[in-house]
Amino acid sequence: MPHTRDEIRTQVLQIATRELALQSETIVQLTDDTDLGEHLDSIQRLSLVVGIEDHFKICFEPEDDQQAITLADVVSIVERQMAPS
Question: Which of 39, 45, 58, 66 would bridge with 81, disulfide CB 3.0–4.6 Å?
Fold first, then answer.
C-alpha cells in the first residue's frame, strides 16, 4: 500500500513518540530540518530505526543510517525503501 510523504512523516513521528517515550513538546520541535543528532543519543537513534524498520517492514542499510541526519532524510529513506523495485 503506497504511503504519501506526509503519511510517512506522521507515522515516523508516532513511532518516535512510542519508541522513545518523547514528550509532546519534543515532537512539536521536530521539524523536517531538525538535526536528529541534537535531540537523540545513539541508543535512541537505534531504537527509532528499529521501530521504523518494524513498522514499515523495511531494512535500513548502513549508508542509510549515515544519511539520516534530519527528519526529512529519514522520511526520504523510508520512501526509497518502500518504492517498488
Answer: 58
